[in-house]
Amino acid sequence: MRNIPLNKPFIDDKEIAAVLSVLKSRSLSGNGVIGKEAEDLMSRLFDVKYSLLTTSCTHALELAMMTLNIGFSDEVIMPSFTFVSTANAAIKQGAKPIFVDIEPVHLNLDPDKLEAAISAKTKAIICVHYGGFGCQMDKIMSIAKKKKPQLYVVEDAAHAIGAKYKGRYLGGIGDIGCFSFHDTKNLVCGEGGAFLSNDSKLAKKAEIMREKGTNRADFLRGEVDKYTWIETGSSYVLSEILAAVLLAQLQKLDTINKERVKLADRYLQALEPLGVSGDLILPKISPEIETNWHIFYIRVFDESSRDQLLKHLKRNGINAAFHFLPLHASPYAKSRYGYSEGDLPLTEEVSKTLIRLPIYPELASDEQQFVIKKIYEFFGRKES
Ligand SMILES: *Cc1c(COP(=O)(O)O)cnc(C)c1O
Predict the structure, then answer these.
(1) Among 66, 232, 322, 382, which has the highest number of CB atoms less than 10 A from its own CB?
(2) Burial of residue 360, with CB atoms counted within 10 A of its CB: 0-12 exposed, 13-18 middle, 19 or more buried
(3) Residues designated as active site
(4) Tens digit of pLDDT for each residue in 311-344?
């Protein structure tokens, strides 16, 4: 029987050689030459002034909240259709998450619902580029700008490496951007992330907080003769071993994302008739964005068809999957913040009806064809 995973990291001899070379160098800890090289490359690739590698995107988001001095009695606006890390980063600082519904085109934070969610306590908006489809950054940035200097925009760009909004790279548009290099993402290093910013003050503060609240980075650059404790902080530096894997991955970004685009085009073309017949809903791509196809999703019309389709695919060795459970309807958000089911209708509907299909550079065309065939089979239709 076939076994087609949902995702598969694209690793070859380059990553293996890079890891061996770091091990042989005996310099394994973070903030070293390889990490610096990866950071410089990231800054160049995504047209951003400052890039800092972190141990995960979860940690990059935490670092963002710390850097922005988010604290007790502050509010942070975010979608509910996201991973728990988006919310935890704010909650860890003592802030309250304010969940806003998504819009129907790209399933991102709905800018038209943003203003109503802003209060005197709002300190930040975290927007999430779901699946690599960019948020409406113009609207979000201009709403935030009206409340400057107090209201910041953080992009949770965990899905969005290499994707664009109006020609600009996601992760470099807000005050801070955060990437993930977890195994499930487009570029991987096992566990890892990045903090991006164009703001020198924020970047400087993050650099200190990432190094246990010390100015060790200044010391490594030879700017001071010893380093010392100057801020609160934690340990968010990425090991050179993982940075080496990431550097090799960054050099393949184009190849990886192009392969995903090809696969997505094939899915879109092959499944189009099922969209026309009203069996399913295909993703839409508005002209202002360029997605990296981190996720290829389809949607059906109710939860039970979604579950049956997933079961049908699983039985055939296809590891398709549902995605985020709405955070506002989780036990924690209900008991601690008083949210309830029904509060964010579109988030809830999308969560019940969305299916992610396998997409990764090594997905062979006969495997993809098999996935397509099994979807047609489920709906009892003939592929033309
Ligand atoms: C994966 C993910 C994260 C967390 O990334 P890690 O690197 O695993 O910490 C955060 N936000 C979103 C939207 C994600 O999908």
Answers:
(1) 66
(2) middle
(3) 185
(4) 999 999 999 999 999 999 999 999 999 999 999 9
Calculate how far, in angstroms, residue 247's C-alpha sits from the geometric centre of ligand 1.
19
Instruction: State the pairing for strand pair 50-54/168-169.
Output: unpaired
Could you tell me the distance, in angstroms and rounded to a whole number, from the CA of residue 378 to the centre of ligand 1? 32
What's the helix, strand, coil split of the chain in %, to 5?
45, 15, 40
What is the C-alpha separation between 102 and 347, in angstroms, rounded? 6
CA angle 126, 89, 204 (to 5 degrees): 80
Three-state secondary structure call for residue 119: coil
DSSP 31: S
In a mutational test of the pocket of ligand 1, which residue from 61, 62, 85 has the highest number of ligand atoms less than 8 Å from its CB?
85
**Residue 235 corresponds to which amino acid?**
S
Q: Please, what is the Cα angle at 260 between 125 and 351, to 5 degrees?
A: 45
Closest alpha carbon to 286 in 107, 101, 22: 107
Nearest C-alpha neighbor of 173 from the set 191, 152, 190:
152
CB distance 84 to 59 below 8 Å: no
Segment 369-381, tens digit of pLDDT: 999 999 999 999 9
- Give the number of the atom of ligand 1 that is nearest the alpha carbon of residue 181: 7
What confidence tens digit (pLDDT) does each residue in 197-240 have?
999 999 999 999 999 999 999 999 999 999 999 999 999 999 99
DSSP code of residue 169: E
Both tokens of residue 69? Answer: 């001095």
